[in-house]
Amino acid sequence: MRALCSAATPSTGAFRDPAPVLWRLAAAAAAPPLGEALRIAESIHVAVLALAGRRFGADAIPPVLSGRGEGGAPLRGPKQHLHKHVLVGSSDGGSRIELIAVWAPLGLTAEEREVVSRLHLRHRGGHIPLERTERHPAFARARSWRTLTPYLPFNHVKPRGRSSVEGQVRRELVEFRGLPNPESVRCASRIAGGAHLQRSRGRGRGEPPPRPHDLRITFAEPLRGPIALGRHAHFSLGVLVPAE
After folding, report:
1. How many domains does the chain have?
2. What's the mean pLDDT when you consider all of the chain?
3. Which range of residues forms the domain containing residue 57?
């Protein structure tokens, strides 16, 4: 998947820039708790779709922004993780959302990037002012990584094998994210607390969430992020940051 980041769009030849679009919350903004990550990411997704609809037309939003292909069906198979991810972050690894990234493994064309760059964030009925930045911990380089937001397994968890939490993490890293098989994966059940773990709209809405987990993943060699895994990884769950 990483090899596709700077590919040209086959139909138009347009260059796709793999760099993320990054913001930080303005100093005057009240930073939401990390438990609001999924809700914040959904709000950003809706805002991007609205901007893209005005730019390209409601029926012609690029799949890299919408996550949907022909006929409006969600992207599946090898393409299911190439489209837009919204990744929250904290400047000091704390408990508040201070940073936001919009990133697509496939990369964004100049026109798509311009649309995303016009983002305005509304949350809980209010406007949250944003400022552009150049840093986000998820885009660092590290050998060991830990979850900033809860990891939710895709499938029913079994005690061992490919369907265990570790097995699902390893499979996603290698088969779907194009990353090396890690040296170690440590998993621990997490108390959800006040974290929102269910989509309020779209796919997965109303489904009971699986038990959340914390992960610590160590690779043989340092690698460049971002890494986001599991259910709702496109919406800021399962976001990893350097553990070192």
Report:
1. 2
2. 87
3. 2-132
User: Does residue 122 or residue 205 have the better pLDDT?
Assistant: 122
**What pTM was estimated for this model as a whole?**
0.87
- Say what the pLDDT of residue 73 is: 84
Q: Which two tokens stand for residue 13?
A: 């030849």
pLDDT of residue 2 exceeding 50: no
* Residues whose CB is less than 8 angstroms from the CB of residue 27 and which lie 6 or more positions away in sequence, other chains included: none
Start-to-end CA distance of the chain, whole Å, equals 25
End-of-domain residue from the set 98, 132, 166 = 132
Nearest partner of 217 among 149, 143, 159, judged by Cα: 143
Whether 6 has a pLDDT exceeding 80, the answer reads no
State residue 139 phi and psi, 5-degree precision.
-100, 20
Cα-based distances in Å from 16 to 68, 173, 179, 205: 18, 23, 20, 31
**Cα three-residue angle 89-217-42, rounded to 5 degrees:** 35
Identify the burial level of 197 via C-beta atoms within 10 angstroms of its C-beta, where 0-12 means exposed, 13-18 middle and 19 or more buried.
Answer: buried
